[in-house]
Amino acid sequence: MIKNILWDFDGVILDSMQVRDYGFRKIFEEHTHEQVEKLIKYHRTNGGWSRYVKIRYFYEEILGQNISEKEVLALANKFSNIMREELIKPEHLIDDSLKFIENNHTNFNFHIVSGSDENELRFLCKELKLDSYFITINGSPIAKNKLVFTVLKDFGYKKEETILIGDSINDYEAAKVNSIEFYGYNNTKLMEQSREYIESFDEHQLR
């Protein structure tokens, strides 16, 4: 029986991909279109990874340049300011998952484990009036597999009673390394990796 649900945020609760695409294009607008689009492709493929990883990847792998931790943090803060302004708009919420969360937050133990910056994530959840539904809201720069491990450890959850719902291969890998079940959502490419794939929460019985 499922008692504990760990939620990814982007693409599962909030439809934020296009806004985050815009954010990366904006902070790197001085670089060439070709270079930035390589990052966008990497960003979309690795939706569960943090902006810190993606910014470093852009410099080290695409530009072939070194970047200091201070420079990474400055760009991440610039990105976060754009996100805070755009993503507090309720129209970005995914109605299907939101209704399930609103109707079931007393039936399960809900936690968020996200690749988004933790401070930004908590700000967005508060602004969007989501924070009361979740016991903890956890994000980067800590890696998602470690976030999952910490929730399991701190709350003493049984792995067979815990699942992770996500929309990226990184979510699947975080669930796998922690030996909990992964339920794919909002990305049909994950059907093969998912024990169960959620087409719609209205039609899917979690038990």
TrEMBL record:
Q: In which pathway does it act?
A: Organic acid metabolism; glycolate biosynthesis; glycolate from 2-phosphoglycolate: step 1/1
Q: Which GO terms describe its biological process?
A: DNA repair
Which InterPro entries does this entry report, sorted A to Z?
HAD-like_hydrolase_sf, HAD-like_sf, HAD_2, HAD_sf, PGP-like_dom2
- EC number(s) reported in the record: 3.1.3.18
Q: Name one GO cellular component term.
A: cytosol
The record's section on Pfam families has: HAD_2
**Alphabetic keyword roster:** Hydrolase
Q: Which reaction does it catalyse?
A: 2-phosphoglycolate + H2O = glycolate + phosphate
Q: Name one GO molecular function term.
A: phosphoglycolate phosphatase activity
Q: Which domain of life is it from?
A: Bacteria
Q: Which PANTHER family match?
A: PHOSPHOGLYCOLATE PHOSPHATASE
The similarity comment for this entry is:
Belongs to the HAD-like hydrolase superfamily. CbbY/CbbZ/Gph/YieH family.
Task: Name it.
Answer: phosphoglycolate phosphatase
Originating organism: Maribacter spongiicola
